[in-house]
Amino acid sequence: MPLLDPAHAFVPYPDVPVPRAGTGPLADLSFAAKDLFDVAGYPTGGGSPIVLAMSGIKTHTAPTVQKLLDAGARFIGKTVTDELAFSMNGNNAHFGAPINGAAKDRITGGSSSGSASAVSWNLCDFALGTDTGGSVRAPANHCGLYGLRPTHGRVSLDSVLDLSPSLDTCGWFARDVGTFARVADVLLGEDAPALPQCVRLLRPDDVWTLAAPAAADALADAAARVQDVFGAAQGTTVALDSFDAMYWNFRYVQAHEAWLTDGPLIERYAPPLGPGVAERFAWSRDVTDAQIAAGRAFRAAFRGHLAQLLGTDGVLLMPTMPDIAPLRSESEAGLEDYRNRAIQMLCIAGLSGFPQLSMPLAQREGAPLGLSLLGPAGSDRSLIRMAERIAAG
Length: 393
Description:
By secondary structure, the chain is an alpha/beta fold.
């Protein structure tokens, strides 16, 4: 970890040399990894004292981390994650709350809180996170960063702690789109097939109504910039049945798998869980077989619905989150309310498994606000190429 960590972004493990290639496409860049990724010489704590105690020192490095090392990137440490990665607030009851470098009085968002914080403080050039329900996209929105939830399964999560495996994805953060694209070349390669040069831009009106009115207003100029490059966005609707139905079916799938992953540990050791996390796991334990069956069926139906809407050339232009980051002083109840509103937006990519890229193109009250591109399955690199064109003007 860096000698000085004003962001409180890093887990204070002893520094261990991590070999990297002497040359490569990322040889001038430094990076960090969320403390879910195995790195040889370090434990993997998952934001949980009991998981850390059971970890031992890893002898193998996760393939995604190894790819970056083989491309010459310099590893500088492991970053704080929300407890068992089951939160979007960025406040770990055991390891603290990393500080948002773009808005110090506001939360970073989680569960990839430390990774986003480290990049926002310029402590490293990019950082790995994971996104199950929004854990890359929310911190990217809050901290003024580029952040991708990739197509499910496109970037390896081998030797990474699970939360909900059928929803978990590996993403990353960077401050500028050029750095972000260089990492994409290593982790993603090229799309097969790529989006066409002339995409069909779509404005999901029902998603926009979920944004706070002031946030929607603040995003208007950024949305206009995107349309200057790619043409006027056609209005459409995305929700299947209702956002309420989407929210609950997403939660059933996520919660059921989270309990399968971590329930045995929780029941055996009864570790003290932080606020919000404890309640979510208690709720997860009681998801019924009927609810999980309904959730899986709904997910399959929604994936087909969105695939038909987007075809091979459609891209949604939408807010990343309902608003700017909540204040650090916000109550637990207020944070939970914000999280539940956010999931209605975030579950579009989660249920479909399609890629979503958040771009730091707006702000409100001096805090960052993200605008997203969401494309068909496998269009990850094309979305980043679109962001490069937007940044170039």
